[in-house]
Amino acid sequence: MIHGFLRVAAATPECIVGDCGENTARILALIKEASDAGVRLVVFPELCITGYTCGDLFSQELLGKVALSAVRLIAEKTRDLSITSIVGFPFVRGNARYNCAAVIAHGRIQGIVPKTHIPNYGEFYELRHFTPAPERTEILNEGLFGPYEVPFGTKILFTHDTDDSISFAVEICEDLWVAGPPSAFHAYAGALILANLSASDETVGKKEYRRMLVSSQSGRTVGAYIYADAGSGESSTDMVFAGHSLIAENGAILAESELFSHGLTITDIDVRKLLSERRRMNTFTQLEGWHRARFPILHGIDATKGYKLFRKIDPHPFVPRAQDMLDERCNDVLSIQTAGLVKRLSHTGSASVVIGLSGGLDSTLAFLVSVRAFDRLGLDRSGIQAITMPGFGTTGRTKGNALKLAGLLGASCEEIKIHKAVGQHFKDIGQNPDTHDVTYENAQARERTQILMDKANMTGALVIGTGDLSELALGWATYNGDHMSMYGINASVPKTLVRHLVAWFQDSPEVLIPEPDREADRKKLAAVLRSILDTPVSPELLPPEDGEISQKTEDIIGPYELHDFFLYHLTRWGASPAKILFLAEQAFAPNYPRETILKWLRIFIQRFFAQQFKRSCLPDGPKVGSVSLSPRSDWRMPSDASAALWLKELDTLE
Q: Would the pTM count as exceeding 0.70?
């Protein structure tokens, strides 16, 4: 298995009702096609060997015998393929006939799963032909499927022969549509992948409901859900089938077929990611009592070079791709930040905040959120004390943008130059001002924090922190300098999202300037925010060159889009460096070559471990997403933890 990815498929063959021979040939062709594409688990529709719409033909002895032979033939014909196939067929046992799924791998039938819930309403009349699954799982040893014992029942986990954590289970069509789907209990028993063989007729609006069912069930079970739907060839006497197949993972649809199509719907599911999430959730209990059918599910997968995933790996996991979803995300994040600050101001009884407004992205976002919080509380915006503190690296552009922004939004604004104070400090400690080292830089950051804290004390205000999640991950903050505040409003907002949040205000200046007679000011505000967005990310601690910023953060520590990607997969899913590299190559090709990703990944790992001490004493700040580095909630890591294991794995990837 390549970094935890398993290639799976939902297959919809063209069907001929009642013609088991032709249907079997088409099933075999799709199994071969799937195997050639690297698929290791393929799911077919309900009763695909006979056709779902056979009606009273199911009572014909001949049809049942031929369908049984077809299952055995599929096993024999796929013996040498490294793929597990799940096909639907009618199975007669004793006094009953069951609507079943046969799990086939390595030349044998590994198990038979009957349908639990038999619909008998509306256009469905399955109880005329089939009996609900028996309560107990039994072992068939009559030789019907060769010289093997075959488990028959619903409580079966099909499990990797050497790894119990990798297993799948099966349910059939209506089983998903009931209040308590069997797949929920399969998941509690350990099934990571859930297969559904379906024959769901198409009606107006059913597509959206079906998609919702599949995605939500994968989310509730923290699993992967493969839904294979019957399509063309089924009888159109009273129904039409569209072959709407879907594959979902933990609430997200990864792949979906076009309606009224046939063939394979292929994607890659991330088994390790699902396991990581289940193990994180202590509410995901473990049920007992399931029979385990063991065989090498992932047989034959070992190559990694040049392996291209079918699924798309999002290069910006914190930023939705669709514009409507991005707008919603921005609104939600800003609402959370605003609500957090409103609560803190209300609790402390403070009507004033102090914020260091530099003209950069982070301080701009913190300032704009402060404006919204003051408006929410009905406080005068003049209580927002925006202080710009020019130093040795400050440019006219950033200082000008800070002053314009504060003025347009009615905040009080003060300029306090730090050159003399820092110069005196250099004299006091014996620092050569021409030595532009870390002391030169950090002295400026600490002087600014001292000014903000003392100004807050003078007016009973709160100092609003501006540092973001990406800076905290990298430790790109001065300890006891810009790392400190009384409330860190951006503490869980990654840099890649900060940009979009500021852009959201640029596109909606009326949110901050609602007065209809201030259209000119709204245009000025949008222009200032545009200029801030176009400014390179920089702490501005080193002298400018020809009036322009000389110290560009991303030139020093690497692109934030890479670091945010690394952060997300390391902390949210516990991915190893090797897997993060693999995912990054898939996500960022061809923009970043492998050696570039490796270079910045190494820097990220080194800094992430070495700088934990700065995160261990963070001020309060609101959590806005699934990734946070707060030492009180989401990330508890010793400040002296070693990065040796992670760096050693990186050494093997060079």
A: yes
Share of residues in the chain with pLDDT > 90 (%): 89
Dump the DSSP string for 154-181: S-EEEEETTEEEEEEEEEETHHHHSSS-
Measured over the CA atoms of residue 529, residue 531, residue 536 and residue 542, the dihedral's sign is: negative
Task: Return all residues near 486 (Cβ < 8 A) that are at least 6 apart.
Answer: 456, 462, 463, 464, 465, 619
Catalytic residue among 48, 54, 115, 249: 115
Per-residue pLDDT, 168: 97
Catalytically annotated residue among 15, 20, 46, 54: 46
H or E, element range at 11: strand 5-12
Percent above pLDDT 70 for the chain: 99
Catalytic residue selected from 48, 173, 330, 413: 173
Distance of CA 279 to the CA centre of its chain: 16
DSSP line for 36-87 = HTT-SEEE--TTTTT-TT-GGGGG-HHHHHHHHHHHHHHHHHTTTSS-EEEE
Asked whether the bond before 114 is cis by omega within 30 degrees of 0, the reply is no
46 is catalytic: yes
CB atoms inside a 10 Å sphere around CB 636: 11
What lies within 8 Å, CB to CB, of 460 at 6+ separation is: 350, 352
Provide CATH code, domain 323-553.
Answer: 3.40.50.620
Identity at 526, one-letter amino acid code: A
Alpha carbon distance 370, 366 (integer Å): 6
Do 5-295 and 323-553 agree at the fold level? no
Q: What number is the average pLDDT over the span 43-48?
A: 98
pLDDT in tens, 575-602: 999 999 999 999 999 999 999 999 999 9
Phi, psi of 318 (to 5 degrees): -90, -10
- The residue extents of the domains of the chain are 5-295, 323-553
Q: Where are the beta strands (DSSP E) in 161-289?
A: 163-172, 193-198, 224-229, 246-249, 252-256, 263-270
For the domain made up of 5-295, give the CATH fold: Nitrilase/N-carbamoyl-D-aminoacid amidohydrolase (3.60.110)
Q: DSSP assignment of 511-574, as one string? A: GT---TT-HHHHHHHHHHHHHHHTSPP----S--BTTB----HHHHH--HHHHHHHHIIIIIT-
The tens digit of pLDDT for each residue in 262-309 reads 999 999 999 999 999 999 988 888 889 999 999 887 654 555 556 789
Give the tokens for residue 289. 């009592």
The CA distance from 68 to 146, in Å, is 12
